[in-house]
Amino acid sequence: MSTSTAQQFPSGPPSSAEASSSPPSEAPKGHPKGLYVLFATEMWERFSYYGMRALLVLYLLNYLQFQPADSSSVFKWYTSLVYLTPLLGGFIADRFLGLRSAIIIGAVLMAIGHFLMAFEPLPIFYTALVFLIAGNGFFKPNISTLVGKLYKQGDPRRDGAFTIFYMGINIGAFLAPLICGWLRRNMGPTPGMGYHWGFGAAGVGMVLSLIIFLIGQKQVLRDVAAAGNLNEIVPQKKDSTALQASAEEPDEQVPSTGGFGGAITKVFPWLLFLLAVVVPASFFYQAATGQESWTNVIMPTVFALIGAWMGWTLLSIKNAARDKSTVIFVIFTFVVLFWMAFEQAGNALNIWAAYNTAPLDLGLFSIEGEDYQAANAFFIIAFAPLLAMMWTGLARRGMEIPTAAKMLAAMFLITASFGAMVAGAAAENGTVTRVPLAALPEGIQLETLNAGRFGYEPSSQELTVRGVLAPFAVTNALRPTVDKAYMAQIEAMEVAVKNASPERPVTFQFTGLPPGYTFPLSDKQGVSGWNAESRAVTMVGGLSPVSKAQLVGSGAPPAWRQAITSLAEQSKAAQVSGLWLLLSFLLATLGELCLSPVGLSMVTKLAPTRFASLFMGVWLMSNAVAQYVGGSLGEKWGQIVPTSYFAIFVYSSLVGAVVLLILQAPLKRLMHNVR
């Protein structure tokens, strides 16, 4: 998974005990038992994260009846903060809490967050997300560090340990969408609406993770102590004398590169300063003129300020060391473009899988909906060892592929991945569904609905739609035709029956109903009685978002409502094969394997010693930037046709690939023979 490859590289300087340890050849066979405690802890934590992520956008769309713009907004805030808070969580663990306490606090916070997801009110839902974000900040950066502390510096078992740990992550990420998705489809009072069962399973996974760590923590501490690293997992204050001594590094005595590469090094910090002014100013202007909400100013400003900080840091580095450091930040730009596309998996591609993709029959079982979220982890487990063997084999033959070239391959692979989605979306968009409709309702503008995929042919009196008409598009098409007075009554009813229960039923009387009205709710939705003559309904439960949407839809003109609902059902024939999605995930995963591990390794090789941790944290922040930008683009889903939406990522990735291709030679010179 995109979040997991960071775990392959241990962090932290060697302790004095490590420096005086036995030669690597004397290392014992097998792995310490503590590794398997951490393996299981992380596996179940990743199960909880990817199980919840697989359901999140669909829960917002189907259960809470959000439109894609709103669901994507929630998704971008959640996922970008999940990747940003580990910077703070790692700092707090380093200075104040220590690794063990931080991991326990993080696991407890996330367990609380997952179980809060079982409650429907929106304030509780948002509170749950806050707990999950904060918990992840404490948990994620520290458990992988703890894996490295199980081994002495130079222990040959360490690489194998991170491979085992990495597989645990992907096992959890593979199982989570399958199990949580199955529960969503098959449990609960209404078919397909068992979201809280899925969220509950994710919560159980997090509790198991916590229990395993609490039970096994003594074994982990014994193994850390045996490796001589116990002092490194407790809070440490930086020695200012040591920091001063390391201020000047050997690379800063080596002359910098000239030519085009040298120009990049000189210009790049000032480009970061320029962006730090232009980006916030642009968002402030848009917010002040009503084009953007003020909340959308926050994250771009934070990212811009961090960019200015990094520009100032680059200016403090000299000569060849600045050349190498600049490479990290230049590559950062392309990594953001990669993750921006790749992380559509949990958002737009998840929506596409749920509505626009037909179940893929594989004989003994079928793949549908959230199941596709497991594809990335499956392909990593299948192909990661093969690619690792290939890189190693090429290096042994003196044919090692430079890091920038591997990044270039990743950019072309993600371009091809979304090229496959464009092809699949074109096939879906090529199917046209027709239903009879005598005339359009007054005031309806088809070009503003369903990304302009509706059409009306007056000569044949037919309403048409290209591709699949998703449920959220049905709601969006019915709502404009509903009388405002009726809408006001629904709002009043929602307030009136908020606390209704079987013990305390509430009766609400409509003052007027649209012509041809049919009451849509049943006893399964909290209705104990409906009297058409008196227009009174008795409720023994509150009005859920789904029930409210049905009430709204029932107020639309009968002919329009019938045409839209028939169109939605018949348009399912436009669903395309899931093979398009699987091909897209395969290409994206191969790209991930070319980019993520080698990118992390590159930072460890190029960053100055005194900025190693800082640059690694900022490098990992590329996913936070990508999640936010990609989520912002996701707000356009349903407003532009899917072919055009997926094409955004083809163009952005392709442009990135071409620019990176042009930069191959200067980047190679700036790296000063580091491969």
UniProtKB/TrEMBL annotation:
It is a multi-pass membrane protein. CDD domains: MFS_DtpA_like. It is found in: Cell membrane; Membrane. InterPro entries: Dipep/tripep_permease, MFS_trans_sf, MFS_Transporters, POT_fam, PTR2_symporter_CS. The chain crosses the membrane at residues 47-65, 77-93, 100-117, 123-139, 160-184, 196-215, 267-285, 297-315, 327-355, 375-395, 407-427, 579-600, 612-631, 643-663. Residues 1-30 are annotated as: Disordered. Keywords: Cell membrane, Membrane, Peptide transport, Protein transport, Transmembrane, Transmembrane helix, Transport. Residues 14-24 have a biased composition (Low complexity). Belongs to the major facilitator superfamily. Proton-dependent oligopeptide transporter (POT/PTR) (TC 2.A.17) family. This is Peptide MFS transporter. It comes from Stigmatella ashevillensis.
